[in-house]
Amino acid sequence: MTTDDFTIRSIEALCYRYPLATPVVTSFGKMLNRPAVFIRAVDEDGVEGWGEAWSNFPAPGAEHRARLVNEVLAPGLVGRKFDHPAQAFDILTRGTEVLALQCGEPGPFAQAISGIDLALWDLFARRRHLPLWRLLGGRASTIKVYASGINPSGAAQTAEAALKRGHRALKLKVGFGADTDLANLAALRAIAGTRMLAADANQGWSVDQALEMLPRLAEFDLRWLEEPIRADRPREEWHKLRASAKMPIAAGENIASVEGFKQVLAEDVLGVVQPDIAKWGGLSACVGLASDILKAGKTFCPHYLGGGIGLLASAHLLAGIAGDGWLEVDTNDNPLRDLFCGPVASVKNGTIDLGEGPGLDLSPDLATIVNYRFI
Q1: Cis-peptide, bond into residue 302, ω within 30° of zero
Q2: Are 249 and 228 spatial neighbours (Cβ–Cβ below 8 Å)?
Q3: Burial, 204: exposed, middle or buried (Cβ in 10 Å; 0-12, 13-18, 19+)?
């Protein structure tokens, strides 16, 4: 019989890259391969947990985050006893604040810490023989999903393929010129019918460009418009957009502080809030945040674009807080996602079912991706 407290035997980050035939395109750049930093934590009883750190950008970022875990963060946890993952999260966050400032890297540190945090939550849930979503307070294992990462080139074909795979909601990347964006939105609205359709500008517009586009987007009945302007633009610019928008505004993947989320939850600007648990906060910060998003009357939709383990953890969070939002599921080719996301790979009528297995209920077969290993 296991107890709630656990002593960490080892934490290891493993870095992978899957080469792409077709790059993933955003308004600010391309991904020529798909990286993943998977993190394995093992306690003194041999119980294992898995997490993932966000590592999409810059191009060499995955190796850097893996080394942060292995050489800077993990040595400070090995041999220590905890009775809850949040304790380790707090120790790592407080213990590296000055170091992150000194080297100008609060983002990479937050991402590496988030990956460790996800692994420890998985381990913690397995020790208690509970699915992670149930440990987080969830009442049902089924959640809604949407197909994301629909590039401007071949958007209609990608959308049709997603619907054939069981998706019932779509999100298009925009920010590639009005003609391209509007043509793609018209095509996707025709394909989707009355189903959910959203658009993501990936911070690609100035406030003037966004204000010019908003009336032209109104006809497409978008569930939300995501990151129309840079995340760090003054709040008055976001308020201007909200006053002119006929659809909800979404953001959150690039908010990386408690204070930042408190601000947007206190405002009537964002209708959809999208923290990324592999990018900032892990579950230790984002479980409470997700509940606060719902209490503020907003829709919680976890942001995610990476490998399968972080995607699966994001699914458990959405089920755990019993939100009515959608889980983001990338449509682009990526075995580092598909082989390690468990039931998220099986979309039926726009939903997935997480089941009752302990933790994330995932035992990764790393032999299947050994050829993509970098660290």
Answers
A1: no
A2: yes
A3: buried
Residue 95: per-residue pLDDT: 97
Tell me the residue length of the chain: 375
Other Cβ atoms less than 10 A from the Cβ of 374: the count is 14
What are the distances in angstroms from CA 93 to CA 98, 100, 334? 10, 10, 31
Q: Are 127 and 359 in contact (CB under 8 A)?
A: no
Question: Is the entire prediction scored with pTM above 0.90?
Answer: yes
User: 3-class DSSP state for residue 268?
Assistant: coil
* Sign of the four-CA dihedral 126, 128, 130, 132: negative
Q: What is the pLDDT of residue 16?
A: 98
Question: So what's the pLDDT on residue 59?
Answer: 87
> How far is residue 294's CA from residue 299's CA, in Å, rounded to a whole number?
6
How far is CA 222 from each of CA 166, 200, 225, 238, 369, rounded to the nearest angstrom? 20, 10, 7, 18, 38
**Mean pLDDT in consecutive groups of 10 residues from the start of the chain, 375 residues:** 85 97 82 95 98 95 98 98 98 98 98 99 98 98 97 96 98 97 98 98 97 98 98 97 98 97 98 98 98 98 98 98 96 96 98 98 97 94
Residue with token string 């990151």: 227
Task: Give the integer Cα–Cα distance in Å for 197 and 189.
Answer: 7
Angstrom distance (rounded) from CA 326 to CA 273: 11
- Secondary-structure percent of the chain, ordered helix, strand, coil, rounded to 5: 40, 25, 35
Nearest to 327 by CA among 209, 204, 196: 196
Return the pLDDT at 2.
Answer: 60
Measured CA to CA, the distance from residue 292 to residue 286 in angstroms comes to: 9
Question: What are the strands, taking DSSP E only, across the chain?
Answer: 6-26, 29-43, 48-53, 81-82, 142-150, 169-173, 196-200, 225-226, 249-251, 270-273, 299-300, 326-330, 351-353
Burial class (CB in 10 A: 0-12, 13-18, 19+), 160: middle
Q: Which of 47, 52, 76, 3 is nearest to 310 (CA)?
A: 52
C-alpha to C-alpha distance for 183 and 270, rounded to whole angstroms? 26
